[in-house]
Automatic annotation (TrEMBL):
Its main location: nucleus. It comes from Tetradesmus obliquus. PANTHER family: IMPORTIN N-TERMINAL DOMAIN-CONTAINING PROTEIN, IMPORTIN-7, 8, 11. It comes from the Eukaryota. Belongs to the importin beta family. This is Importin N-terminal domain-containing protein. Residues 11-90 form the Importin N-terminal domain. PROSITE patterns: IMPORTIN_B_NT. It holds the Pfam family IBN_N. It is found in: Nucleus.
Length: 1278
């Protein structure tokens, strides 16, 4: 435990290594440390047991061979299991004992019950009141049981041999024996757990009544007082206290046990008595009055404190019965429903209820919500009709009365179906009891009182919260937002959730009760603050459950009748323009809730109302009351998001129409970016191509967008003035973040309409940046809050630059914030950089895309980029930014960082290659050898050799990183063809090593699409390299220095493992190359335009590169000729590329004709990439001449054209496909230079046949009737 870094860091590293490797003897040594009570201090022993707990693990997501506990020797496991319980029941430290209990829980996740069957019985025996252990240690045993039960919830049974002998396998043991053993273990598991129910129930029955009646345990008070204090109960109290602690622990154990022994057939034996005891105890604990003789005041307060915590455990236990045994528990629901309704809602006044611990109030409400949501207590379940097995009664009657012979199997099946039906009928009868009780709760006679109590005691604001509203308005808003989160577990959101459950289950009765209560409170006026708070709570409930009350109170009517007038009439007072003081807080409560309703239900407003609501909400941002102003910000934000929703619909429709029009006009493919995965856009494109007009929804969205944008821009100046005025009044970072989020959304929605207001908006940004910089320089700055503020500011800048483009980039005030913010966020020495760098790189990329040249300030950021490249965790975005610098002719600025870029690219490509091989389950030569051995064993057993199974799915981020690296290398190679081959030689080697890796399954064996995408990206880069420098191939396939070192080490130690020293097999490299080059994806076959374009380009560059290698003699002809199938594949790719010459020319014309603004979105980087492609040698390549030269070289090596044709015929196989049958004459034409003419003739003949078929079809139709064959006829025939 040294504080010296030089000593501590190596020691921590050694411990982590031993922990990860589960080194033999490590756990035993840790247990030895723990047991030295007198010689070793508590912190060290605590650390030892924590490390032991982590070493055992319990992580079931690991494979069996990588789980730490699975690799501990069996003898050591046994000694650890024995030591854990002994130490836990003897250690003087409760902290150490707690961790020992958690260690036991982790071990049970693996070893219970097969290797540790008696652990639960030992703990139960130790916890028994008659055991020889002191109460302190008995409590430890009970608490350890709870942890074990909780851990067993995630236990999984695995097929591992009991004796982990080397080489033992599932095949050796036999599937039948494995299945039998697993079934036996599951059965033992259930039995051992069920045996725990009765002892725990007995413990609850022994200690809970003794706690409830302290006078009954007074005889043991003196004896147990010291034990109570030692057990953590404090000095106050007597015997009742130790009984209370035991009762709490026993109830906890029962609660965690119930899910493990869930049985639809019934509750565990003795549960009725337990539930009766819990029911009575819950009543008494809720009242907070002990039975028997009164306690002294100080002791009574201690009793009530423990009683409150025990009540929480009792409630959780009752809920666990409902969750785990819903149907058997249904008969008790009426009793507990009344208990919880009275306790949570009706019995106590609001002040008493609010004085309880929040957790206690949450549990009271949670039971009611769970009962309402339980599917077995719903009418659709209990009223479902039972169905007689089809023909069952007739068959049985024929068998029993008429003596008709019926197969015994059929009779047994009918009997089984009848028994199942009887069980279902019994379950419905049980559920009906609970359903009727719930229906009674939601009846007209009771529901009004329940709704009113729920609103008053759980939803309404308290006077303490109003004090916070006045003294700390930003803190109040923050607490309210926490309550609105999805994980909120406090009384108010749980109370609202219960009301929503009631509305969903009770329907109109509950909704009408809520509306009636609201109307009554409205009629009462604002004279009483409590009545106003209740009214505000009702408004919140209506907004939260609006979908359930909309048919009674449409929001548009409510806004017109009350909310609009409320907001308008009080606005001057809140703005301070009426010459009066600020309205009182009660008025502010209603005003803020009205604004919240506008945001929550604003989609229901009609046009005039939406315009009115927008104006009023914007105006309220200037309110003097900060809570009202911030609630107005939220309302405007939600209304602005509606504009973005309409924009998204119309943008999608516009893209689909543009693509469809281009397809209809030119017959070309769809616009790049419109994918088959976007089903809605594809459907819209097809509809547009057929001339279908916009549907009503699209027309309505277009109209809404026009007038809403007019409203937004009409008072944009007022909005920005109020927002930035409010920004100066705020003190908390979170509040500023909320305002900047609104500015960001408004900027995105307004787009170019924001330009007239750019000056006002930009003028406020430096102030925000300076304030954040000042806060960041303070010693007590909250890094997380500042990161969120800088993130929001980054989003504003990104939207401004993305929408206003040059106007924003040229604005000096925008520059004064953007460049320093980018520098701050990408500086890895800043504490916020870790969370800001992703958004900073996005903003950086946007700034590059909107200008035709790189700004000097962005050149200055390259120093930070070099550090990001060295770290290597943001490579995808970083490589794209570097590519943009090159495309925008700023390559000179990158020259000082060329070595860093080369190293980053090499490291990324190697890491991606490793991930690719990992995803195939074959990342080493040893793994490949193991896979081959497995296949051989399966073949010897007469089983088919299965391909390697993926070890881990390749993450999308890895694929993106690989493709980003390939794209950057490709651009560098095109711009600097003389320098890049040497500069990036390690990159090219890493790519070639993956493409030709012996351990990589070929695509025909089922490579994932993401792996193929990476291989395609690498193939295109290597193909471009070979087109310019074919002599580079041998160096790329030779072993790298990194590969030679392990091989030399293996040779020195005599292992003989030198497979890596041979580098990459040229044959394997060519096979993989051809398979990738010839692959045709489903999207291409389906006609997805950009995929077809990519496929044609990939085939063209791959075939051209191989041809160049063959023609130059770098690729020996023997590599292709010795495998005729390989030769046939190459020839097939060549012919296909030649056949696609016209389509490839159409692709080029399509790309050259893309509109800069409409189709390239005015992206200068994308435009530069397309401009670079105009000079691409692949475009202008004469494929016929290139392929003719390669085939001539192959024919010469094969002994002439006849020899080549013979090899092609052999490569086609015994049953060649029609395409293979046509291949030989086409290759012959290629050799003689007549392939182009032959392909043109074939196309002309095919067109002539098509015209003849059309004419014949038209003649036949005309003979049958007068049919108009217009331009649509050909399309219909096609």
């Amino acid at each position: 435990m040294s504080h010296a870094t030089a000593e501590r860091v190596p020691a921590e590293a050694a411990i982590r290594a031993w922990e990860t490797d589960a080194a033999p003897g490590f756990l035993h040594s840790l247990m030895r440390i723990v047991q030295e009570h007198s010689a070793i201090d508590e912190p060290t022993r605590l650390l030892a047991v924590v490390v032991a707990k982590n070493t055992v693990g319990g992580n079931w997501r690991k494979t069996l061979g990588t789980r730490e506990w699975s690799r501990v020797p069996e003898e050591e496991k046994g000694s650890v299991r024995n030591a854990v319980l002994q130490l836990m029941l003897s250690d003087p430290s409760d902290r150490v004992a707690l961790q020992l209990g958690l260690l036991a829980s982790n071990i049970c996740a693996f070893d219970f019950p097969s290797r540790w069957p008696d652990v639960l019985s030992h703990l139960l025996a130790a916890a028994d009141w008659a055991s020889p252990f002191a109460p302190q240690f008995k409590l430890r045993a009970l608490r350890a049981l709870k942890h074990i039960f909780k851990g067993l919830l995630t236990k999984r049974f695995v097929a591992e041999p009991l004796t982990q002998q080397p080489g033992a396998s599932a095949a050796a043991l036999g599937m039948a024996s494995i299945t039998s053993r697993l079934q036996a273990e599951r059965q033992l598991y259930k039995e051992k757990l069920k045996e725990c129910a009765a002892p725990l129930q007995q413990l609850v029955a022994a200690h809970l009544p003794a706690f409830l009646n302290p006078s009954s345990s007074s005889a043991t008070a003196a004896a147990d007082a010291a034990a109570a204090a030692a057990a953590g109960g404090g000095a106050a109290g007597g015997g009742w206290q130790i009984h209370g602690l035991f009762a709490k622990a026993a109830v906890n154990g029962t609660t965690e046990l119930l899910p493990l022994i869930a049985d639809p057939a019934g509750l565990p034996e003795g549960t009725r008595q337990l539930l009766e005891l819990l029911h009575g105890a819950a009543n008494q604990l809720m009242a907070g009055v002990p039975a028997g003789a009164p306690l002294p005041p100080a002791e009574l307060n201690a009793w009530r404190d423990l009683a409150g915590r025990l009540h929480e455990r009792v409630c959780k236990c009752i809920i666990a019965h409902l969750d785990s045994h819903p149907l058997p528990f249904a008969e008790y629901v009426p009793y507990f429903l009344k208990l919880f309704v009275d306790a949570a809602l009706l019995q106590l006044d609001a002040a008493t209820l609010r004085a309880m611990r929040p957790k206690r109030r949450v549990l009271l409400v949670r039971f009611l919500a769970k009962a309402l949501l339980c599917p077995y207590y719903r009418p659709e379940y209990v009223e479902a009709q039972a169905f007689e097995p089809m023909g069952g009664s007739l068959i049985e009657a024929l068998h029993s009365k008429a003596g008709v012979a019926v197969a015994p199997e059929l009779l047994a099946r009918l009997q089984q179906q009848r028994q199942q039906q009887q069980q279902q009928d019994g379950g419905r009868a049980q559920g009906r009891v609970a359903a009727e009780a719930l229906q009674q709760l939601l009846s007209k006679e009771q529901v009004s009182a329940v709704v009113e109590a729920l609103v008053l005691k759980y939803v309404a604001l308290t006077h303490e919260e109003l004090e916070e509203w006045s003294s700390d308005p930003e803190g109040y808003i923050r607490s309210i937002e926490v309550e609105s989160g999805p994980d909120a577990d406090t009384p108010r959101p749980v109370g609202v959730g219960l009301l929503l459950c009631m509305l969903e289950r009770g329907g109109e009765e509950v909704a009408q009760a809520l509306i009636n209560l609201t109307a009554r409170l409205q009629a009462a006026g604002e004279g009483s603050p409590d009545m106003v708070l209740m009214r505000e709570a009702c408004y919140r409930c209506i907004g939260e459950g609006y979908s359930h009350v909309s048919n009674i109170v449409p929001f548009s009517q409510w806004y017109a009748s009350e909310l609009s007038g409320l907001l308008r009439s009080r606005l001057p007072a809140f703005l301070g323009t009426a010459g009066e003081g600020s309205p009182d807080i009660i008025a502010a409560v209603l005003q803020a809730r009205a604004l919240w309703l506008v945001g929550a239900c604003g989609t229901e407003l009609e046009r005039e109302q939406w315009v009115d609501a927008w104006g009023l909400s914007v105006a309220h941002i200037g309110a003097r009351d900060l809570v009202v102003a911030l609630q107005a910000v939220q309302a405007v934000l939600l209304l602005a998001i509606q504009i973005l929703d309409d924009q998204a619909i119309l943008d999608q429709v516009a893209a689909a129409k543009l693509a469809a029009s281009k397809k209809k006009g030119t017959g070309a493919a769809q616009l790049p970016g419109l994918t088959v995965g976007n089903a809605a856009a594809v459907d819209a494109a097809l509809s547009a191509a057929e001339g279908v007009q916009d549907d009503e929804a699209v027309t309505a969205a277009r109209e809404r967008l026009e007038w809403r944008l007019a409203v937004l821009t009409g008072n944009l100046e007022q909005l920005l003035a109020h927002v930035f005025g409010l920004l100066g009044r705020l003190s908390e970072v979170e509040s500023s973040v909320r305002l900047l989020q609104l500015v960001s959304v408004v900027a995105e929605a307004a787009g170019e309409r924001l330009q007239p207001h750019l000056g006002a908006l930009a003028a406020a940004l430096p102030g925000v940046w300076q304030a954040s910089t000042k806060q960041a320089s303070g010693g007590n700055a909250d890094t997380g809050a500042l990161a969120r503020l800088h993130s929001a500011l980054m989003a504003v800048i990104t939207h401004l630059v993305g929408k206003l483009r040059h106007a924003a980039m040229a604005n000096e005030q925008v520059q004064a914030v953007m460049y320093p913010l980018l520098g701050y966020a990408t500086n890895l020495h800043n504490p916020e950089a870790e969370v800001l760098v992703e958004e900073a790189l996005k903003c950086w990329g946007v700034a590059l895309a909107v200008e035709p040249a790189v700004a000097p300030q962005l050149v200055g950021l390259l120093g930070n980029m070099s550090h990001l490249l060295k770290r290597g965790t943001d490579n995808s975005a970083a490589f794209q930014i570097l590519e943009a610098y090159l495309l925008l002719q700023a390559g000179q600025a990158l020259q000082p960082y060329s070595e860093v870029i080369s190293a980053a690219l090499t490291a990324a490509i190697r890491q991606v290659s490793k991930a690719v091989l990992d995803s195939c389950g074959l990342n080493t030569a040893a793994a490949a050898a193991a896979h081959q051995q497995q296949q051989q064993q399966q073949q010897q057993q007469g089983l088919p050799g299965a391909p390697a199974r993926p070890g881990a799915l390749l993450a999308s981020e890895v694929t993106q990183e690989g493709l980003a690296a390939a794209a950057l290398v490709d651009v560098m190679l095109q711009l600097y063809p003389a320098d890049v081959p040497q500069l990036l030689l390690p990159c090219f080697q890493a790519m070639a090593q993956l493409v030709g890796n012996e351990a990589l399954p070929l695509p025909r064996q089922g490579l994932p699409v993401k792996v193929l995408n990476v291989l395609e990206g690498f193939l295109e880069v290597l193909a471009r390299l070979f087109l310019g420098a074919p002599s580079a191939l041998p160096a790329l396939l030779a072993p790298t220095p990194e590969q030679q070192q392990p091989a030399a080490a293996a040779a020195d130690d005599g292992s003989g493992s030198s497979s890596s020293s041979a580098g990459v097999s040229l044959h394997r490299f060519v096979d993989c190359w051809l398979l990738i080059a010839s692959a045709t994806f489903l999207e291409e076959l389906l006609g997805v335009g950009h995929m077809a374009m990519l496929g044609r380009f990939r085939r063209r560059i791959a075939a051209a590169a191989l041809s160049r290698l063959i023609s130059e003699g770098v690729l020996p002809a023997s590599v292709l000729l010795e495998q005729p199938a390989r030769l046939a594949r190459l020839a097939g790719v060549m012919v296909k590329v030649c056949d696609e010459v016209d389509k490839f020319a159409g692709d080029i014309a399509h790309l050259d004709g893309l509109h800069f603004e409409q189709e390239l979105n005015s992206d200068f980087v994308l435009a530069a990439r397309l401009n670079l492609s105009k000079g691409d040698a692949v475009r202008h390549l004469d494929v016929f001449a290139t392929f003719q030269a390669a085939m001539a070289a192959l024919a010469a090596a094969a002994g002439g054209e006849a020899g080549l044709m013979a090899l092609l015929q052999a490569g086609a196989g015994n049953s060649p496909s029609p395409a293979m049958q046509e291949l030989q004459p086409l290759v012959s034409s290629l050799l003689h230079g007549t392939l182009a003419a032959q392909l043109e003739a074939q196309k002309a003949a095919a067109e002539q046949q098509r015209q003849q078929r059309l004419a014949a079809a038209a003649a036949a139709a005309a003979a049958d009737g007068d049919v108009d064959w217009g331009s649509g006829g050909e399309e219909a025939m096609m």
